[in-house]
Amino acid sequence: MGLELYLDLLSQPSRAVYIFAKKNGIPFQLRALDLLKGHHLNPEFLPANSLQRVPVLKDGDFLLTESVAILIYLSIKYQTADHWYPSDLQARMRIHEYLGWHGDCIRSTFGVSLWAQVLAPLIGIQVPEEKLKRNRAAMDRALQCLEDKFLGDKAFLTGQQVTLADIMALEELMQAVAIGCDLFEGRPRLAAWRQRVEAFLGADLCRETHSVIWSIRELAANKKLPDPPPEMRSRMLLRIARIP
Amino acid sequence: MGLELYLDLLSQPCRAIYIFAKKNGIPFEMRTVELLKGQHLSDAFAQVNPLKMVPALKDGDFTLTESVAILLYLTRKYQVPDHWYPQDLQARARVDEYLAWQHVTLRRNCLRALWHKVMFPVFLGEPVSPEVQAATLAELDVTLQILEDKFLQNKAFLAGPHISLADLVAITELMHPVGAGCQIFEGRPKLAAWRQRVEAAVGAVLFQEAHEVILKAKDTVSLADPSVKQKLMPRVLAMIR
């Protein structure tokens, strides 16, 4: 059995892995999961002993979770173009610097709108306005930092070429953009960066990767999303409680 | 100018870098940035890291922030023994997996445990409510279980048979709740035995030296200067939620 990727394109790290594998022509078997149906909690859908999270990579007997680890694994194993994860020490560390900040500071920030507008209502919960206000402020701070500290005057976040950092960041931001947050208003530099990343990836691949997240609001409005199974409820409540 | 490391050993990622550099005989200039004196908010430090966070590294003209990036930089630049971050693709991926996982899980929970039990009372002048503390500790407990079951399993170290960056990043995190007086190893013999192995691999003296500040924090943390308290307050309040 060749490479298998367990993904749900509703999740931003899954999309980063998908877009990277596709763009680089890495052959893989897509194992599409539906998180809203609780597929990741069901041993039938995910390989044994996984962390019940997507994305998961299965390469023969080797199982790997965490999008960043998966992206690095793929870039080394399939010897993708050097710019994605440069062999030059300082250039590579700029990517890790970004990913460290991403993991600590923005990872749980840009998904909140989706939770507030689509996912929490599925189980009858309303996220308090006070929290949403705080989240908007947090997104603002994160975007400012992304623009000033990371992007600066460069073409991409860590240099003049696209890297793993750019796709991780783009997919994180898309989580809010697709729900109708205009993150790029008043941020022409960041908007131009997005254009560059999407142009590099190609419009078709972007459309394909983002179709699920772009359609989620409409599906919710038309009541076409599945009712989360009971075992999902407690997990969803926990996630919602963790919104600062 | 050679390698400079901007650290405060009160911070868990700073301890990981300190231990790693010392253990591997990497020569560096220690630049202490005292967080509780607000030194990370100074203009001088903003020149090094505009995000005003420790740790930071300066190597000639090259400046680098974020602990995982700094550890990886030191690993490659100083050609330390392979086990810290193996060349083997799958072995390395195990280390990367842990380093990516810990951000919103162990890191968040260990930090909150220390802040809720030790730091907030100092800043706010009153203890954090028992309900909030209990919720924080319950979340920490769940994370510890994942650390033991999914990462450590029956191996000697988190990512394999030898100590790696993953172990160093994990143990320095766990010493945060330990410093706050939480008995996190009680009832977890596997995790306790792992801690002994990590301490032995690092060396007891170095381990002790790096953790002296945090292990005394419970009894010694105070804010002498009220103006510093004002400066730190916005960040502190952001952390209580």
Automatic annotation (TrEMBL), chain A:
CDD domains: GST_C_Theta, GST_N_Theta. Keywords: Cytoplasm, Transferase. Residues 88-230 form the GST C-terminal domain. Pfam families: GST_C, GST_N. It comes from the Eukaryota. The keyword Lyase does not apply. GO terms for cellular component: cytosol. It catalyses: RX + glutathione = an S-substituted glutathione + a halide anion + H(+). GO terms for molecular function: glutathione transferase activity. The keyword Cytoplasm applies. Residues 1-82 form the GST N-terminal domain. Its main location: cytoplasm. One of its GO terms (biological process) is glutathione metabolic process. Its EC number is 2.5.1.18. It is found in: Cytoplasm, Cytosol. Homodimer. Belongs to the GST superfamily. Theta family. This is glutathione transferase. It comes from Phyllostomus discolor (pale spear-nosed bat). The lineage of its organism: Eukaryota, Metazoa, Chordata, Craniata, Vertebrata. The gene is LOC114509790.
Automatic annotation (TrEMBL), chain B:
The keyword Cytoplasm applies. The gene is LOC114509683. GO terms for biological process: glutathione metabolic process. Belongs to the GST superfamily. Theta family. This is glutathione transferase. Keywords: Cytoplasm, Transferase. It catalyses: RX + glutathione = an S-substituted glutathione + a halide anion + H(+). Residues 1-82 form the GST N-terminal domain. The keyword ATP-binding does not apply. It is an enzyme of class 2 (transferase). PANTHER family: GLUTATHIONE S-TRANSFERASE THETA-1, PTHR43917. Its EC number is 2.5.1.18. Homodimer. CDD domains: GST_C_Theta, GST_N_Theta.
